[in-house]
Amino acid sequence: MHLTDYVIVGAGSAGCALAYRLAQAGRTVTVIEHGGSDWGPFIQMPGALSFPMNMPRYDWGFSSQPEPHLDGRRLVTPRGKVIGGSSSINGMVYVRGHARDFDHWAEAGAEGWSYAEVLPYFRRMEHWHGPMPDGSAWRGANGPLHVTRGPRRNPLFDAFIAAGGQAGYPLTQDYNGKQQEGFGPMEATIWRGRRWSAANAYLRPALRTGRVKLVRALARRVVMDGIRATGVEVARKGRSEVIRAKKEVILSASSINTPKLLMLSGIGNSEHLAEHGIPVVADRPGVGANLQDHLEIYMQFAALQPNTLFRHWNIPGKARVALQWAALHTGLGASNQFEACGFIRSAAGNEYPDIQYHFLPLAVRYDGKVAAEGHGFQVHVGPMRSKSRGAVTLASTDPAADPLIRFNYMSHHDDWAEFRAAIRLTREIFGQPAMAPHVKHEIQPGPRVQTDAEIDAFIREHAESAYHPCGTARMGRADDPMAVVDPECRVIGIDGLRVADSSVFPRITNGNLNAPSIMVGEKAADHILGQIPVMPADVDPWINPNWKNSQR
Fold first, then answer.
1. Which of 14, 124, 183, 310 is deepest in the core (most CB within 10 A)?
2. pTM score, two decimals?
């Protein structure tokens, strides 16, 4: 039997940050992680990002139940089964979210999590290597997480940004700073040509302190003494054992596995637990509910010029890229190739952006399948704040069994209007003069897809997850029956148990979720340690002054 101050389940984005900060404060920590090592080019080479999320060695292999509003399709839901968690298999895109996202959290019951109150944690966690035109109020320069921008050598990146400006949208020099809205360079967790995951940024330095121990095992359930969490039962090397916590247990196992573990431990909807014969320790109907994600489509265009990545998309080309990266950590393999982006509002009356763009100078899917037409490029585009909600539920009481995941994508009628707007506004952007030398024709959806009905059919057939699940143990006031954790990340009704990962998000944030997930780990550490919270930042984020009356 192991005994340590804190037991963290999950060496992912938030769990690694937690372990680092707790060890920094002199506490002992045991981190339980079912996945293995992250060494190897498929993870460490940014340009190989499409490989690890499709490899059972690194990915849990989850998929949704048939989605009724997407023609019954099952959508894959990759989650990292490796140290670093999903930060080791994601696209490395770094987006904090919009300031108003966190203000909404606070208004919804997550008191202390407004933007002014979380900004100091974003600053504390990052080592930003770009310009600071507005001084240090917005960005951090000394944190463990290196954040960089790609070289944007391909002319398509700047052409896309210029087209956004020509379409009447603002340009932004730093979407993670004062102004998210607009078009500009995209940022990534890449440092010196390597993926800078939570494992590289936080876990390895934490392990070097000698106060953090990493245990490779499958967490089976939280061990309870009455209503107090005292440890975690794990399966390791074919045997069951208990890892005890002197102070607290923290679940950082992802928005899929965290609610699963809570339910297996008797914390969840009492009716659902009864269906599986699980004794109820705490009736929290919000466990597993409130599941959210970002849906996106790839709008693909055939290229007039052979300046896309297609010329490298063959065995000799990939070999050259890999060899250069292996020798020098430079070249195309040193970038995730998401080097330009945009955030816009879909309609007048939206206070801040609700559509995101990732531009890629290749027409390719995440599974590595390229468009049949050769040279091309694409944008990943989709609405940011869907009103649809799904759930994670138990399939059985077997801890090794996957839970049931149903996002209920596109179940709210507003989602359809927002997605149609995203497609039509994208076509307008790619019709600007800056893209004229590059666009041959639209491959997907294609010129035959024009009416609402045609666009809706395309969405049903082609929309894919952006791999941003969250919200399944949402934060709120202790008297909120659907809240799972309070604003200090404590599981309501249970002593000695917290949740710190994207599960606690009351509402999904604007953009990719790795940055806000790490921020949750950083801030939760302060709550756990009982430290005086970082003083709120004095900032005034940019909001388009004409947002009530103008779409751009």
1. 14
2. 0.97
